[in-house]
């Protein structure tokens, strides 16, 4: 291990809080998607670090599943953003306040 | 041991710095590029934790798949008030 | 570097942030870092010498009994149920993406114009082929 577990925990907490910061302060839907990616990556860093810490392969396997879910989430998110752009001519999430029916 | 700690600190700095860049930069396209840098440095962290297979998967799935999808979306949803949006029709 | 603020290629920082939610995120990080740095961890165990981690991931993912395999294997839990659940979730994601892509296509809005590379709007503007 290149650093004590505390260092990996603080690193992933930093990346996660940057993701939360992006979600709370930005209005662009694409930035939302990227912030969610950052938060998922923070979780993956923790899983892999503790997989090494315990000498057990469970954490690495679980983070593989997390990656698959992140890819699916981005595919859906891109579809939603394109529909949002088609209907509102913008991807500002504070603009989309009306529904069709 | 000292070299390893320095390597971890260096790449942790790259990860945190480019992640901060993702949320702080004005242009969405610059955010996408910085997100690519952050994902690649996370892959480096995986290699340092002896998870080489996960590092390969990180680069293949995130940089090769997710980032390309985000790039498509950035190109498709350029806003009309941005100056680049009208260059297509003037060319 | 020109001083023109509209020269385009230089990255610029966004400045008009709402400060309250940003401070909330920073406070969250402060609490997390405080807790993590006060926790005590022992020495890391590390993986078994000579074991193939990639092969071990494969054995763990499909519930293959590690005792039946020759050579060193890193232990882990079985994940085959999670594997099937993720497979179903990916199927649902594909269906959702297809549904989002084909809904309201017949309207011919700006999205339909832009997804053909701007060809339709260019023909409308210039009235000819190029």
Automatic annotation (TrEMBL), chain A:
The keyword Transport applies. One of its GO terms (cellular component) is membrane. The chain crosses the membrane at residues 6-24, 31-55, 61-85. Keywords: Membrane, Oxidoreductase, Transmembrane, Transmembrane helix, Transport. InterPro entries: NADH_UbQ_OxRdtase_chain4L/K, NUOK/Mnh_C1-like. Pfam families: Oxidored_q2. Signal peptide: none annotated. This is NADH-quinone oxidoreductase subunit NuoK. It comes from Halobaculum litoreum. The gene is nuoK.
From TrEMBL, chain B:
NCBIfam families: PRK06433.1-4. PANTHER family: NADH-UBIQUINONE OXIDOREDUCTASE CHAIN 6. Pfam families: Oxidored_q3 (PF00499). The keyword Transmembrane helix applies. This is NADH-quinone oxidoreductase subunit J. It comes from the Archaea. The chain crosses the membrane at residues 6-25, 32-49, 55-77. The keyword Transmembrane helix applies. Keywords: Membrane, Transmembrane, Transmembrane helix.
């Amino acid at each position: 291990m290149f650093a004590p577990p505390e260092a990996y925990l603080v690193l992933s907490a930093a990346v996660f809080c940057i993701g939360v910061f992006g979600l709370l302060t930005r209005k662009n839907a694409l930035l939302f998607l990227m912030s969610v990616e950052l938060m998922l990556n923070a979780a993956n860093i923790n899983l892999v670090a503790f997989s090494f810490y315990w000498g057990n392969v469970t954490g690495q396997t679980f983070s593989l599943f997390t990656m698959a879910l992140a890819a699916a989430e981005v595919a859906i998110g891109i579809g939603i953003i394109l529909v949002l752009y088609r209907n509102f001519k913008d991807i500002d999430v504070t603009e989309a306040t009306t529904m069709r029916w | 041991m000292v070299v390893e700690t320095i390597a971890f600190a260096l790449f942790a700095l790259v990860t945190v710095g480019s992640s901060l860049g993702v949320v702080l930069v004005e242009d969405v396209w610059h955010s996408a590029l910085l997100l690519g840098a952050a994902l690649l440095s996370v892959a480096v962290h995986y290699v340092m934790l002896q998870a080489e297979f996960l590092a390969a998967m990180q680069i293949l799935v995130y940089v090769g798949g997710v980032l390309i999808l985000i790039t498509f979306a950035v190109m498709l949803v350029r806003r009309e008030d941005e100056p680049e949006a009208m260059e297509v029709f003037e060319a | 570097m020109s001083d023109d603020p509209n020269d385009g290629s230089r990255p610029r920082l966004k400045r008009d942030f709402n400060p309250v939610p940003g401070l909330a995120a920073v406070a969250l990080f402060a609490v997390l870092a405080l807790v993590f740095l006060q926790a005590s961890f022992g020495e890391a165990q590390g993986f078994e010498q000579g074991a193939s981690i990639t092969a071990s991931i494969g054995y763990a993912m499909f519930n293959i009994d590690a005792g039946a395999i020759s050579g060193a294997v890193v232990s882990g839990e079985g994940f085959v149920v999670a594997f099937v659940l993720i497979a179903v979730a990916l199927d649902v994601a594909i269906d959702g993406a297809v549904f989002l892509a084909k809904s309201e296509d017949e309207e011919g809005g700006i999205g339909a114009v832009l997804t053909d590379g701007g060809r339709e709007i260019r023909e409308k503007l210039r009235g000819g082929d190029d």
